[in-house]
Task: inverse folding
């Protein structure tokens, strides 16, 4: 397999293909990633979500919006509103802002009635009040799917797209170690991924000191506080967006139900070191 | 995780054996190549086996001396630094037990068990990545350059 490595949307990407990517193909992938980032990145001052936050308005529905927001509705329903896409201002309040200030200004719960403030269909996306959209729970997974589909459209039949540990495989089995959240030299288990996606989320991945204890990027939108119970999650699904969504949901009550509803296999570790897993045969825990 | 010097030796562990869990790493290490043959969860291992094996002395050639190593959680956990401490027990160059002290779960969720949980295991030590055959790793080790630089900056700030 040929490997192409690059950095984009704040993480390291590796794309493995049986046939080496041509220069034109790399360019097409780069443009696809850039287009997605240009719409959804709240870390860019020229993105659509930044423009919406500055001035609530109606815009033509961008690609991926319907798929992601429909899934966010299911995520929000399953987790009692803990996971939702208007959590951007909550993250900014804790210091996870466009400039990575990491300066904690305290809790800022996201608007509970987010489905009243945001409307979308095939034609238009409209925000009715100032709010910062953050698709962090599923956006990277979605982009992995988009790149995966692009590779298929380009005629590749065996490939792997890995965006910093969130990956989708077309082809035979790939063994992926589930990194121990307290010790990066160890794995708590192994996932075997065949024609499927694996996504993980770890509370120690993006963590920084706050006013009253450590902070990280998985906030409960209802309170603006980081999750304290779960240290890391992994999920396997057919599509990376769904695996990504489940990996986030599994930090909260309702996450296991969400996974069962969508047929997602998973493993998670609590901050006390306890490991739980779903039924299924694609992940082994070294218990 | 950086390991500090042993804070106490294996023979002293018997007193807290009840809180330790045997992960069976020592037994599995020699069969690491047979990764296709998945090892079933070793839930039958008993804590008493841990204390029984902890009395032997260190051997030459081991990378780590036998004993218990303690590391603070620092930023690795979502909890505060003060609240988490992880102790790892090493015997014959294999981790045989891990203990997390403190009260890390000021949990917003209480019901861990439920019909959607397929299995549960107390404190999983895991295996060394070097000892298992994987082509990729999914976890926290890959963090963006921008975030890492920002974190370094505020750490430097804090020291001034």
Result:
């Amino acid at each position: 397999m040929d490997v192409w490595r690059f950095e984009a949307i704040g993480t390291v990407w590796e794309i493995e293909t049986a046939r080496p990517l041509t220069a034109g193909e790399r360019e097409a992938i780069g443009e696809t990633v850039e287009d997605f980032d240009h719409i959804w990145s709240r870390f860019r001052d020229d993105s659509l979500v930044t423009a919406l936050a500055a001035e609530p308005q109606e815009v033509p529905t961008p690609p991926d919006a319907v798929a992601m927001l429909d899934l966010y509705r299911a995520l929000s329903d399953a987790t009692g509103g803990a996971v939702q896409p208007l959590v951007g201002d909550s993250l900014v309040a804790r210091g996870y802002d466009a400039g990575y200030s990491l300066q904690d200004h305290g809790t800022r719960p996201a608007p509970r009635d987010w489905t009243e403030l945001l409307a979308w269909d095939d034609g238009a996306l409209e925000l009715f009040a100032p709010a910062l959209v953050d698709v962090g729970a599923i956006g990277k997974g979605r982009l992995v799917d988009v790149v995966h589909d692009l590779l298929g459209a380009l005629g590749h039949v065996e490939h792997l797209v890995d965006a910093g540990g969130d990956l989708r495989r077309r082809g035979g089995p790939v063994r992926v170690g589930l990194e121990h959240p307290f010790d990066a030299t160890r794995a708590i288990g192994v996932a075997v991924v065949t024609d499927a996606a694996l996504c993980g989320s770890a509370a120690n991945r993006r963590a920084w000191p706050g006013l009253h204890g450590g902070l990280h990027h998985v906030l409960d939108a209802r309170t603006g506080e980081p999750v304290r119970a779960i240290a890391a999650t992994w999920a396997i699904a057919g599509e990376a967006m769904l695996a990504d969504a489940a990996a986030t949901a599994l930090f909260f009550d309702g996450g296991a139900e969400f996974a069962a509803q969508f047929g997602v296999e998973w493993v998670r570790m609590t901050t006390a070191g306890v490991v739980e897993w779903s039924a299924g045969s694609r992940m082994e825990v070294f218990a | 995780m950086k390991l500090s010097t042993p804070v106490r030796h294996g023979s002293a562990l018997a007193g807290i054996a009840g809180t330790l869990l045997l992960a069976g790493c020592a037994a599995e290490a020699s069969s690491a190549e047979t990764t296709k043959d998945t090892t079933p969860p070793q839930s039958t291992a008993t804590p008493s086996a841990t204390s029984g094996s902890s009395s032997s002395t260190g051997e030459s050639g081991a990378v780590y001396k036998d004993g218990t190593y303690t590391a603070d959680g620092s930023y690795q956990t979502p909890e505060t630094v003060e609240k988490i401490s992880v102790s790892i027990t090493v015997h014959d160059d294999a981790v045989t037990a891990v203990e997390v002290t403190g009260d890390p779960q000021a949990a917003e969720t209480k019901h861990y068990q439920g019909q959607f949980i397929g299995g549960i295991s107390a404190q999983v030590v895991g295996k060394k990545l070097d000892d298992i055959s994987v082509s990729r790793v999914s976890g926290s080790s890959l963090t963006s350059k921008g975030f890492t630089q920002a974190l370094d900056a505020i750490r430097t700030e804090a020291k001034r």
